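Sync notes, pocket subgroup
Present: LS, DG
LS reminded everyone that the earlier model was apo-only. Rerun requested with 6-O-phosphono-beta-D-fructofuranose included. Inputs:
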Amino acid sequence: MTPKARRTRKPFRLAILTGGGDCPGLNAVIRAAARSAFALGWEVFGVEDGFEGLLTRRVNQLHPRAVRGILHLGGTILGTSNRVNPFRVDRRGAGGAKQAPTDRSADVVRNFKAMGFDALIAIGGDGTLSIALQLALKGIPVVGVPKTIDNDIEQTSVTFGFDTAVSTATDAIDKLHPTTEAHGRVMVVELMGRNAGFIALNSGVAGGADVILIPEVPFDLDLVCDKIREREKGHRGGYFSIVVVAEGARSKGGQVHLRATDKGETPRFGGIGQWVAEEIGRRTGKETRSLVLGHLQRGGPPTTFDRLLGTRFGAAAVRAVADGDFETMVALKPPTIVRVPLKVAVGGGRTKRVPLDSDVMQSARGLGISFGD
Ligand code: F6P
């Protein structure tokens, strides 16, 4: 079917799903995509809980009232899941024992066609978009929308959700400042981001941190302690320091800190903040405290920037569908929204990292912020 025929055949049926961890701005994308589609006379369907909904046919038609009043809401009205990959669906045997995963992608393609859908907008991070690419190669017409608080997706200068997470983290650092200073302590704040240090770097700089530890710069704790001691000089009775550490940071020659998970599950980051705090305390004799900001970074209403970017992405994704420009991802290349091939964005399995020569890094170093290197 040509793109023109696709546009003129009535009614065009558009499915939308959100996959992976939620992030502020998802509802802005859903609303913008749905409203743009309604304006073209299309029918819109919301898939529940990411790819799980396509496997189990949990899909509901979205009418205009379903997307009313959601622009400013965090979370996702569709639900999401970061557990179900149709190409590797977990199976449990007798007694709940895990068995080798099975490929159920053919069921997803069959369900998609049986429900009469013409196109899918998949909103997600690198995991969701990689699955979307594989499904596109199996015949599902897909347009991707990049989301993640981590800002680690290639080919887009930024993802929605990141600005909100950085604002939340900066706000937390602001609130920690007075109590840390009052007690002359060292406060270590662990922030999310997986293997990318964007949240820690940006909020650390914006919040006036003294030390920022990110995955891109393996650190030496002795140098971190030197920085803390240097801040003590000339201050009788102790002086405070704020250390921001990304969950994926690691010391030189050390390992990333992962939480114990069930066998076969994707390991989750966590624990580096407490370790850094304890080590600083042991090596400097300073009183230390640590805080894991955790999922607060994914919560709350999206900032103006994220609402606007989400809205622009959602509307641009529908324009891509209308043009029949599938196997693409919408992306921000300031000042415009562009389309990039999905396989260029996520096909190589690479994620974006903080460029060490970025102006934010240079400015931070110029201000005397220590990266422990
Ligand atoms: O990718 C977003 C993110 O919030 C990461 O920063 C974090 O490591 C992970 O998701 C946490 O995932 P979950 O919600 O499964 O705990």
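DG: DSSP finds twelve helices and 15 strands in the chain.
LS: The chain has two domains: 4-160+302-345, 168-298.
Action: DG to write up.
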